[in-house]
Queue: 2 jobs
Job 1
Amino acid sequence: MKKTFINIGLILASLVLVLSSCIHDEFDEPPIKEIPIGVVLTIQDLYSIFMSDSVASTSYKFVDDFSVYAVITMDDKSGNIYKAAYVQDGTRAINLHLMSSGGLYEGDSVRIYLKGLTLMDYRGMMQLDSVHVDNNIVKVSTLKHKTPELVTIDQINTGQYLAKLIKLEDMHFIEEDLGKTYANKEDLITENRTLEDELGQRVFVRTSGYASFAGNKIPTGKGSVIGILGKHDDDWQLLIRSTSEVKFRDAIITVNFDEIENGVPVDLEDWENYMEIGSLSWMGYVGTTNSSVRIIGDGQENSTWLILPQLEINKGVLEFRTRAGNLTGASLKAFISNDYDGEGNAENATWTELPANIATATSSSFGNWTHSGMIDLSEYNGQVRIAFKYVTETGQSGQYMLDDILIYSE
Amino acid sequence: MKKGTLILFVILLAIGGFAQETDTVLQSQPEIPVITLNDSDFDDNESQDISGLLSSSTDVFVNTAGYTFGQARFRIRGYDNRNSHVLINGIFVNDAETGRPYYGNWGGLNDVMRNKVVTPGLLFSDYSFGGIGGATNIITRASEQRSGTSISYSVANKSYRNRAMITHSTGLMDNGWAFTASGSSRWAQEGYVRGTFYEAYSYFLAAEKKINDKHSLGLTIMGSPSRRGKSGVGIAEVYELSGDNFYNPNWGYQDGVMRNAKVGTFNQPRGMLSHYWEIDPTMKLTTSASYMFGRGGSTALNWYDAADPRPDYYRNLPSYYEEGEYNYGYLTEMWQNSETFRQLDWDSFYDANRKNLFTVENVGGVDSVNITGNRAKYIVEDRRYDLKRFDFATLFSKELNENSKIIAGANYMSSQTHNYKTVEDLLGADWWVDIDQFAERDFSDDYIIQSDVSNPNNVVEQGETFGYDYVINNNKANVFAQSEIKLNRIDVFGGFDLSYTEFWRTGNMRNGKFPAASFGNSPTHKFFNYAVKAGANLKITGRNFVLLNASYRTVAPFTRDAFVSPRTRQHVVNNLTSEEIYTGDLSYFYRSPYLQAKITGFYTQFIDGMEAYSFYHDELRTFVNYTMTGVDRVHYGGELGIEAKLSSTITATFTSGYGKYLYSSRPSVTITQDNSSEVLAENRTVYIENYHVGSMPEFAASIGGKYNAPKYWFVGVNANYFAESYINLNPEKHTAEGLDIYVDDDPQVKTILEQEKLDPGFTLDIWGGKSWRINGYSIGFTLSINNILNNTDLVTNGYEQYRFDQTNIDKFPNKYFHLYGRSYFLNVYFRF
């Protein structure tokens, strides 16, 4: 019987050996497919090729080996763009129109193999069409994040920044857009919102209904915006990558002195109108079109503070406007303190002068209202007091008007 | 219905009052000759078809329904397999999680699993209380195996093409020992369906020692390791375009070699120790303990931030475009003419993976730990469900007198299924990052996207676990007792079963979306259930019998249905309850030496059942889970089996089953997705009352003849007809919300609500065999050819896709399975 079992065992073992060799379970890795480099171009070259007379206004298809090295500045992860990416090199930037979404990430330094791709102008946006991520793109390195270029709306209009990653500062959304969301997330509809700068110049912010932040509220306040500069026919439009790149600050205090009483010393709740030296006060002034506060010198030695109520700020920004008249040595400076206790005696606290742009005037005339600039207070987070100090020596005089004080905090 | 059942019981009791003596009918039925059946269609761990088992039943209807009808997915009385209980040596072997028997666990062991007792329907079983679909006990005792050696070799063109099997049994030897050993292998480079392969082995060892006249001890060790490339299911369009009704999207070429993405690999051996105690000639106690363990699971493609690689993805089909569009023409042309185009493109996965340079930041949650390498876009993952299961069963039987017996038993099961997935093949990439890609798009939160927040931004390499990792624990204990009394005019039996079931989930990962509901032990869900059944066989004359059986029971929910999204969280469906089942059947049986005929009517009501489906939703990029609760169904119909001996050599049979399997309530559906806590739909009413349960023919008929030649050969033929088959419904289409965008008169509403009825089909099977005896050796062959007319257009089954687009109702059309065309199974054997 033992023998029978041994025989059976042998037969079985040989069966297993014969069989296991006939079914495939190991697969050779297919050979590596190399993507040729060919002639290396810059993105500026692409624009030049496109603009060259022979092909202008249609499209240009690459039929030979060409490559462009560039960095991805925007991917389609957030959903704000779909089957697309933006790339930029040292010269210019361009849109990639992809065969399928995904696979490219912001910061990827890539080589784009151009053979088979079409260069075209899609309603004002220069794009490379039919880019297949696996066949046309070789990743060289990662996390090479491009720093956005700081531009103004005037510069945008030159066209040089098309498709580039840019940063605009001191922007705000127009009144009508406040309270809305970036796009219609519910019905997945793309929407335009409008950004405005200090000068009233505007640019659209275009957001897809599929963007992960489509349902986020348009921020109030003002600040900087980073995005890709897109174009649709004649309209410039900014494509935001993430709402964390819309750094807006809200005004936590807005002072326009509209309720001020004319001709009497400023006496607002929690404010201080403090005469350190001399007997001048900050006075209310109601003009024909605008109200403000002012202080007018008397030829004596003076030091008078106008101190705002205590504020809690985080990465704050200050702005205000001043106007000066008949200046003969008088000065106005803005200060900040985080140890002033509010009990008079401002001179006993530690004050730091803020780098404000203050109005000037001649000894015999009034100058224009002057914007202070956006004064960065980010070094002074927490409880602070902000003050304006008017100073004259004996024999010096002059008038300062102060208005439209805004303080922003995140 | 409750009332009806009560009345039935009262009648049974009343009938029980009569008492006289005759022999029983079922024991003495003439044996229906059954050819050696191939098991190649039925040993897939996915389609756990019980049909093969039933072929050894002595009931004409059950026998035909099991095999001949089984190929067209006919199910006896429309029952799910979980209602058929399978035991090996008294140990309940249906899967703990699904309740279904997995035929593949003993695939290839045909020689040694031959010895079985099939109890169909509600009849009295000597081994267990049984499900409403009956009970089958397979006896693997070495002492009961036919002694001798058997070697066989088979060729076929089904899921495998070759089978070699060898078995040797000693029988009970003088020293009190008996041994059986069996082994087999089954294989195919390519099965009936293109791209499928098959590689399976099996082994079996049984030893038994007769200690003395009263005690015997038995040991059985068995296993059927297998590996197979799977076939898929498609919509009509892909079958038409490819010209192949068995089009399989799962395979493609890698460097010129055919590779299947879905490979199921199972290796779950079982060891069993049994004690047979003959206390006295009328009293027996059989006790068995069993332990089973091992790996289960299948591979599949997974992809991250890349194009959907499936060739039959709806956007890759012409129908996604308008006729006349460039892509419509292009895709039609390519689909029709290029096999490589309509299959997976493995080489492109390597190309994509090899140059997807990526830097993962904060690996493991540690700041400034960055890893740069080629991040996988495509991988093959292995979705595992590894098993550990202990069973204990004891069965006591006592013959009270020559006319009555009592059987009582107790069973215990403790099962742990470990569900997780590993990276099987990185396809040229360096690693895969274990984050949830959909959650990543919707939430910029780094926490929520983690599969395991205690190991964030985890970079996984080949063989490592990722995605999900949890254990489903199932414990179950039951006791039952039943008694049969045979009287002069009537046999009656009755029995009850009491059971306790508990289950819980143990999470090994803390999922970022469900941090408080994914790690550690879930609450334990407990159920007490009971069941009663009774039956009577009224012996009108020696040739005329009336049989009446009935049962009422409650069945604890199965874990596969109970957890709404076990991969990510421990939540179970609301109001988890046991299902109630009422069932009864009434048969008339006629038997004479030349004719036996049985006609049966049955009625079954299921109350508060559950149905659960899970599917990959490409837009949400995750698994979406449908759980229907409060599902009531009514199954009723008739069965007919006639066998006539036309001469001493010719037998004719006619078999038919016809039923209605309908939903009889408006269930609630809850739809969840794996990657979000957002519930897509909660407790929506599904208006499917009086719709068909679907996925099987409700009518089947077969007429057959067999010639048994005196010189050890036989030949037979069966003509079969299948009809009244409806496809499975997508519950979402039948909710008010699913239709809310349409006005009442929109003709689309009718189209959406209509349940597709499949065309009837006809097949012809022939079979035969011959054997010779030479000097005590026996040699022979059997051959069966199914669907000899090669009808490949017969749709056996289909379902509505669970994805549904209200604005384009044809976007996700129904999927269909076809019956294999002409297929054969030839078995040659040699016994000594």
Note: The domain at 256-409 of chain A is CATH 2.60.120.200 (Jelly Rolls).
Job 2
Amino acid sequence: MAEVVLQGVSKSYAGRPTVHAVDLAIADKEFMVLVGPSGCGKSTTLRMIAGLEDITSGRLLIDGREVTHAEPQKRDIAMVFQSYALYPHMTAYRNMAFGLLKTSRLSKEEIDQRIREAAEILHITHLLDRKPNALSGGERQRVAIGRALVRQPKVFLFDEPLSNLDAKLRTHMRGELKRLHKELGLTVIYVTHDQIEAMTLGTRVAILSQGRLQQVGAPMDLYMRPANTFVATFIGSPEMSLLRCALKPNGEGSLVHHAAFDTRVPERLEASEILLGVRPEEVIVGAADAPAMARGVVERTELIGSEALAEIRLGEDRIVARTPVMSAPPAGAEVGLNFDMARVRLFDAATGSAMPRL
Amino acid sequence: MVISPAFRARFSEAALAYCLLLPSLVFLAAFTYWPIVRSIYFSFHDVMLGSDKIFFLGLENYERLWTDKLFWKSLGNTVFYTLITIPCAIACALLLAVALDSKLRGMTFYRSAFFYPVMIPSVAAGMVWVFLYAPGYGPINSALAALGLPKVEWLYDARWALPAIMFMSIWKYSGYFMLILLAALQLVPRDLYEAAKLDGVSAWHRLIHITIPLISPTLYFVVIIGLLHSYQIFDYVYVMTQGGPADATNVLTFYIYQNGFQYQDIGYASTLANILLLFVGGLIGLIALVFGRRVHYLGH
């Protein structure tokens, strides 16, 4: 068991709060991703879990034991840094052995066995005699992971470990990390600013913004049911379009009025103004003369391989639609638009919070 | 003859480089290399200061070294001074640098405070320490008396005079070395320490296994600079003890000065200077051979 629980964990620097009362429970063998834009407090939160930053207030429990103010080495965790933090004067083998040699009661044979096993898992056996400067970025990354693995800690912390790799290697290493997590049953807390990394790796994803936890959930939950406009626009690429609309009660449901269209939702909502959240794949683009909910003008079209993204002006707003390349409308074309109204999200324009849908 | 443009460009680049080097070379030749050549020449002759008469002696000055007890004493004092002063000063400097390598409030003040001795001219520092070591009214003896310990005639006791100068030199050198080491420490990536901390590696092991190897190029530089400084120690001896008592603080450079300027025996003084040059050169060569390859350069 290696459950990690954060209870109202906060961090302030010189009286200025940077992380606000984060409550989060990471289950045993879970792959939890902390994601958010730069400066959102995700790395600070991870470093507080590691013990590299003091926790200003709140409690931290690992495996049921309070470690809020415990020294890093007493938390039974291992961390992989963005820069890998490999000792440049030591070989890969020595990098992996160093911590164990200096702190554990394991014999040299046991340490050697652990290193050989980890090297085998990570496919780096042939690199053990090399120093970091003779390794590629991906190889360094594996050695850094190996150094964490040989410790056999309760929890693995990863601080943006793939950001220094090129796109192809990053995709490959994502697969490797996923494999390791599954094969070895690791408990992982992983920090990234890359939402694709978060969505593909995480069992659950915690989204932070300005030091506050916005939403925690399974990747598809976050995508399908964002709790607020921040999550709605942060997750998904291109981001969700938000259309400001007026709302009026209409029988059992509500009438949604936008400058370019009127529509109805089955929910009877209290707000007078809402934001209608539409993902690019929920916009159906048709011919200008075909029956449509709204009409707009294409401002530009981007081809992204098998699909195209069309940015369409709709009154004062802009909306992005995903279309097949073959039927991508050219810039300047007038088009008819229909929305998949069962899937669009509604947000309170005043608070940004999601409104319940039937 | 046709000169290719590439050759012309390379030639003019080399010519420019030599032109830029020339002023330094002129000074080096005039004030370093030429005196060395002259000193080698004089060491084979009997030359008196202020006299234009010069007599060839062959190896007589070098033979004289073997039987000159004061030469061996001054060489011994110099080696002893170096062997204690430089390692102690580097150790102090390293500990200070590690302690001051943080972003805590007030660090700039402490860094300046520890560097301050370096800014005091050697002669002034020597005078201050003469006062501190004064047998009757000196603060150090007053402190000893307050603790109920017997007073020590620091600079007038043959057992204590050299250690007293060595202590003062450690104080003077530490700040200088500290500043150089501090600059090197600040280049060591912080996350290496954090990784070691997470592994549970103790502060001592972090110092021995991470800090020292990663600042080894700078340590190597500091050792060489320290050796050069210590073998040239003259000013403190001149100001504080004049080589006494009973030649207990007579070091090689002071003995050279005595022979050259007090006894006016330029020939023998030159012989001593050549021996010092050979000794220091040999020692640095040896250090370079033994430690030079063990130095780890970050990023290489």
Note: The radius of gyration of chain B is 24 Å.
